[in-house]
Design a protein that fits this description.
alpha+beta; three-stranded antiparallel β-sheet; disordered N terminus
């Protein structure tokens, strides 16, 4: 067989890495990845338990990051979101997300006079929803009710994506963040199919699974995720559940919140304030 015909011209990895990834992908797809499960998974899990030293970024914490002292979570106040898409633009710039793919996005829900539900998702970060929300975009009629719902990875405590990964590339850190080790990921797409929230995708440049990381490289340095940092109305809330004085602890303790698809048993850690029943 001519192996050169099978290689993607988009891959920039060295020859031996490319061959290894193709070999692992074929083997995992053929045998369920059983033989490849144990060693990579243990290595990845071990790596996730190591404390991360804070870097020199502006505003970063001067002390080393202790992974055992944090448990991160996220909240969205849908009563504040104005659909400006600043979060999407900031995420793309911060994480080098390929054009046309999204780690976070904003959905617009419209309820018409007959109770029908219409959902639009912004695919153009340079355009906001505001004008349509004011004038109506369905036969010139303004909706009876309309609101925005930002979406990200829910960083589930019982995450299906980590359970189906045949090589242990998808994993959860001790501080509660679901991540992907791109050095192990073979791009099989099992985790993309397993995610009930549709927040994963295969990065068209790296050919590996991609998703929201809560800007892990920022939060381990004492900074906020990029999307939280730029939200002009404070609709996105982030914090440490182990800190009783954090914003997210106040949200969980003092407000009524909703979860998306709670019946899935994933125990998501993205809490929604003011979420309409039509979304759940």
């Amino acid at each position: 067989m001519n192996n050169s015909a099978k290689k993607s011209p988009c891959l920039s990895a060295p020859m031996e890495i490319t061959d290894r990834r193709q070999f692992l992908q074929r083997l995992s797809l053929a045998a369920g990845g059983v033989l490849l499960w144990t060693l990579p998974r243990l290595q990845v899990r071990a790596a996730s338990n190591v404390s991360v030293a804070a870097g020199p970024a502006a505003g970063a914490s001067p002390t080393p990051y202790d992974i055992s002292k944090h448990y991160w979570a996220y909240a969205v106040d849908t009563t504040k979101c104005i659909g400006c898409n600043s979060c999407m633009r900031a995420c793309r710039l911060e994480n080098q997300v390929p054009e046309g793919q999204f780690r976070t996005w904003v959905e617009r829900y419209e309820i018409d006079e007959n109770g029908g539900i219409h959902v639009d998702m912004s695919r153009n970060e340079a355009v906001t929803f505001d004008q349509d929300m004011v004038t109506g975009n369905r036969e010139g009629k303004a909706p009876m009710k309309a609101f925005f719902v930002p979406k990200i990875c829910n960083h589930c405590e019982n995450s299906p994506c980590t359970q189906v990964c045949p090589v242990g590339a998808s994993y959860q850190t001790k501080d509660g963040v679901v991540l992907v080790d791109k050095d192990y990921c073979i791009g099989c797409g099992y985790c993309v199919q397993a995610c009930p929230y549709g927040t994963r995708f295969i990065n068209k440049e790296t050919h590996t699974a991609d998703k929201c990381t809560l800007c892990y490289h920022r939060i381990t340095k004492g900074l906020k995720p990029a999307c939280v940092e730029v939200c002009p109305v404070g609709a996105r809330i982030f914090g440490d559940l182990k800190d009783p004085n954090s914003d997210i602890s106040h949200v969980v303790r003092e407000h009524r919140y909703a979860l998306i698809k709670p019946d899935m048993g994933t125990h998501p850690k993205c809490y929604y304030l003011g979420l309409d029943q039509e979304v759940i």
